[in-house]
Amino acid sequence: MASLRDLQKSFAAALRDPAATCAVSPTANLAVYRNNSLIAFRSALESSFPVLRHRVGDDYFRQLAFLYRQQFPSRSGDLHWVGKDFGAFLIELLRGGEYAWLADLARIEWSREQASITPVLSSAGADVLAHYAPDQLEHLCFTLQPSLSLHASDFPVFSVWQANQLENATPVNQSVGAECGLVRARYDGLEVRLLEPQIFSYLSALAAGAPLGEAVTSSGLDQAALVTALGFVFNEALVCSVTLKA
């Protein structure tokens, strides 16, 4: 007699593969479970990637969802996590093709999903810098909002995402080229925002733990641009805390 674990494994396999056999349920009942499982999986994916679905159309998105599920079946009781590997799946599937940019769009949309379940922490104001001597400023490290995600793409995916917040959006001209930006949670909702390359580079360095001086050097900010960059991170409530690197 099969163990409970073996029965559960065979049932899970049968939900994804109509050719698989399972002793848990009669064939007719198993078909109902299989159909419900597929619809729930696809619906969760559609909810997480609405812009991507809109750009490729329902039929192609269903094909993507089917192929993705074969390689990355849900391993959690929480359907929120269904799309966790969708970006990585699209990178491999579309590599080198004219739709490779969809993988970067998927990364932005998944970051929105993650930001939606990440708390917004209290932020520090620029006056916190007054607590440090001038020669200490370059050694300050900023802890940024935990929901912040930074993305750079060879394609105008931020423009694509923004354009598709409207009904009947026209395709974005791919010749616009590379874009970079952020995704984050705010108290008033979620934000997807295009950034200037220098600000993006500066934020990326800070997010990686670099002290202020290193972040300024790596992003090539001059004094005037640094004032603007500092104003941006504090005015946008991105800094949660400031520490002095030993």
Textual characterization of the structure:
The protein is an alpha+beta fold and about 250 residues long. The chain has 2 domains: about 1-100, no CATH class; about 105-245, no CATH class. Helices cover about 50% and strands about 10% of the residues. The protein has 10 helices and 5 strands. The strands form 2 sheets. It has a 3-stranded antiparallel sheet, with helices on both faces. A two-stranded antiparallel sheet has the order 1-5.
Fold blueprint:
Layout: H1 4-16, H2 27-48, H3 50-56, H4 58-71, H5 86-94, H6 101-115, E1 140-144, E2 149-153, H7 157-163, E3 179-186, E4 189-194, H8 197-207, H9 212-219, H10 223-235, E5 239-244
Antiparallel strand pairs: 1-5, 2-3, 3-4
Helix percent reads 40-55%
Which strands sit side by side, in order, in the main sheet?
Answer: 2-3-4
What overall form do the CA principal axes indicate? elongated
Return the structural class: alpha+beta
End-to-end separation: 63 Å
Features of the shown structure:
246 residues, alpha+beta, 2 domains, 3-stranded antiparallel sheet, two-stranded antiparallel ribbon, 10 helices, 5 strands, elongated
Provide a concise account of the structure shown.
This protein is an alpha+beta fold and 246 residues long. It has helices at 4-16, 27-48, 50-56, 58-71, 86-94, 101-115, 157-163, 197-207, 212-219, 223-235, and strands at residues 140-144, 149-153, 179-186, 189-194, 239-244. The protein has two domains: 1-99, no CATH class; 107-246, no CATH class.
